[in-house]
Each structure stands twice: as C-alpha cells, then as structure tokens.
Design brief:
Two copies of one chain form a homodimer. Chain A is an alpha/beta fold. The first copy, chain A, is built from twelve helices and six strands. Chains A, B: Keywords: Hydrolase.
C-alpha cells in the first residue's frame, strides 16, 4: 500500500463502480418488489434477477460487431425469463416496463451522497460502470449522486473488465492511469483496473447481496486503499 | 411554434450547446490573455483562435477511420499557428499548455448557472457539444454548471452537425427525438437538430464574439422557442 497521503496527492480522478459499490441494488429491488407484489419472495427475486446479469453481459461482450445492447434490454430479457418462476407471468407490458425501470431507481448506500460531496471538493468524481449513460443519469438525478461526469461502458464500447474501459477513463481526462483510482466493492473489477495501471480502493459492502448472503471479502494487500465505506474512503484521502 | 406549455409537457431532455450558448468563450479568452500578456490585442487573439476551430474540426470530421482528436489538440494546433502573429512565439511548452487549458476555464454567462439549476428541477439537462468529455467536465466543475450528464462528440464518435450526435442524444435517454430539445445560439446546430426530429430553442448571445462584433440573429419562425437568455428559457418552459 502506498501511504494514503501520497496517494491523495497523486490521484486526480476517482472512478466509481456503481451497482453494489455506490447503490444498494439488492435492497432497492426488494423494496420495489415488496411494494408491488408482497406475496413474492423478494430476496430470492432480486438475487435471481441480478444473477442473470453477468452471463447476459458476457454474451453481449463476446459478440463481434458494432451492436450495443442497453442494460435495460439485458435486465428486461432476464426479467421475462424469471417472472414465471415467481408466479408473475401475468404481468402486462406496462407493469414489466415499470418494474424493469427499478434499476434506474436504486437507492444509494447511506454514506454515498455525503462522501461524494466531500470527495468532489478535491477530486473529479465519475462513474465507471457497465450501466449505460441514460440509466446512470436517471439514477443520479433521483438519488442526488453529485457526479462530475458519467462514464460508462457505452462511452468506450466495451464492458468492464475490458481494459479499454479503464484506460479510456484516464484518456478522457488526459491523465496517466496512475492518476485515476477505481473505487469498487468487487475484486475482479479492481484487479482489471490495477492491471491497466490504475490505483485501486476496495470498499466493503457486506450487505450487497442482502442481509442473509455473504459479500466479497478482500485482503488489504492488493489494493492501494481498503475502506469500510465511502466516508471512510474520504477520511483516508483527506477529503 | 408549438405553445410553450405543451412543449414543456412533451420534452424530457434539454441538450445544450456549450461554447457561446452556455459559456462566454470570447470574454474568457480575453480575460486570460489580458492577465498574462497585456500587450497583445486580446480581442483579435480570441477571434483568431476560435476562427481556426471550425476548419480544424471539419478536417478531422472528414477523415475516415477510428482516429479521434481531442479538442485540446485542435486548440493547441491553432494556438501554435497564431502565436507568431501576435508576437508570442517565445512562449515555452509549459506556457502554451497553460494557455491552451484556458478553454477548460471558460466562464458561464451570468444567467447560465441559475437557469440550469431551475431547469434541472423539471428536465434532464445535459451538454451536447463538440468539446470532449474531459474538457466539459473540468469546465463544469470550475464554473458550477450543474449538468445531469455530459454528452459530447466523443460519446458518439461524430461531430455536430452530424445527425449521429442528435439522434444519439435521444437514444442515450431512450426517448424519441421530439422529447429532446436542443438549446443553442447557432442556427446551423438548431437546423441540424430539427432535421433529426428534435425540438429547438434559439438563445440570443449578442456578445458571443465580443462587444464589437455582430452575433447571429435569428427569426422566430423556425424554432420551437426563442429566448433572450437561459433564464428567459426557464420562464418560457415553466421551470
């Protein structure tokens, strides 16, 4: 680990993973589902919906050609697949569209907004997400996430962990990769960023997958910083 | 013209041209130059610098292939060309770099920030500029421009007035072109947006090219709205 003070001096841009790191997708999907369909096991539903996301995204990422699929479309395909399993196959088109937009209405973790407000006084704070610009903009507007800039897979025409996304973030701001720090709750993301020369900060999100499920635990040795939440990150970066 | 009230109901996204429409490039370049090199005709310098921009951009836009040139590089090429004409060829690399970054430090027109704060209560407000994401982010951060999202030519790999930029803005937010309104002080931009089905609002910026020069005047008939500044636009859209 580099000394946090030296880190804060050398980093210009903090790029944040969003789903799980900044917003609580599991709790938010559970909240929406309980309000609409209280008879359903909302925990299992949220987990099933998200579980389909990785494979869907890999399928899209592995396809050649210029085709670009919105995250909304991926979420919708998975939703249509899982609805029958939860006894919700009677949902009509309008109800499915509304439910699918729940991913635009994810709530931030309680520390996210106050921490970003502090961090943006000192750093450029941006998203670096596989979510698309439209979804991330709607989410930020509703949740009050004060991004300086929304960067996402669709800007780079590549999904994380493709190196083009991480090096692209540095190129956008005309800085070296070491002047960008990825902040994420997921090792695969941080490892890919580090391989591109970015700094990395791991954030603990023990509730990412719900109260009963275990979230990723990660040792201190690989990342430049290890924070228990984003306010802790702001403290450690002197912001 | 559609009735302003009906317009406000049907529009979701306000996409803003930036240089000239939201920020005062001429006055800001003059300010920087006067502070650094008071002996130079700052008015003429600002005009010469900007005059090179259109042709440079057209040169880049007409080139085939995936090459993408940052606006910083275009500005720098023009700067290097014009410095001798103004007796500034002795500027060293650091001075040239600093001066070139003046385009990141453009001041907003006095109405821009308060108007955007009002407009974003009701609409998604984003940039739609040929400037790149990094430049626009730095500018917004310094000037306090409260964008929900920064969209620019580099997101779409095309420069305005290429239709890909205008239709791209609608696609990003998953809305129809008629739900996006381009706000600009330049007819060529508004005309191209309208040809793609966007709504258009012309904003008068009589001082865009400096106090002595004439700026674009435009009749009322072609655009959905005509505003004397962005606060007037907010009034007309009921924001």
């Amino acid at each position: 680990m580099t000394h946090p003070h030296a880190l804060a001096q050398s980093v210009e841009v903090l790029a944040f993973d969003v789903f799980g790191t900044v917003v609580d997708w599991h709790g938010s999907i559970v909240r929406e589902l309980r309000a609409l369909h209280p008879q359903v096991d909302a925990d299992a539903f949220a987990s099933a919906w998200r579980a389909g996301y990785g494979p869907s995204m890999q399928r899209v990422a592995s396809q050649a050609g210029p085709a670009w699929v919105r995250v909304d479309e991926l979420h919708r395909q998975i939703l249509d697949e899982i609805l029958p399993r939860f006894g919700l196959d009677a949902l009509d088109e309008a109800q499915r569209r509304h439910l699918n937009r729940a991913w635009h209405r994810l709530d931030p973790w309680p520390d996210s907004v106050p921490a970003l407000q502090r961090l943006k006084q000192r750093f450029t704070v941006c998203t670096l997400s596989n979510g698309d610009i439209g979804l991330l903009t709607h989410m930020a507007k509703r949740a009050g996430l004060p991004w300086d800039c929304i960067l996402s897979a669709d800007v780079f025409r590549a999904y994380k962990p493709d190196p083009a996304v991480y090096t692209g973030a540095a190129r956008v701001f005309d800085v070296s990769p070491a002047e960008v720090m990825l902040v994420a709750a997921h090792g695969y993301d941080l490892d890919a960023a580090r391989a591109c020369g970015l700094r990395t900060a791991f954030v603990e999100r023990p509730l990412e997958f719900g109260p009963g499920a275990s979230a990723e635990v990660r040792g201190h040795e690989r990342d430049d910083l290890h924070a228990c939440d984003l306010l802790d990150l702001a403290d450690k970066l002197g912001a």
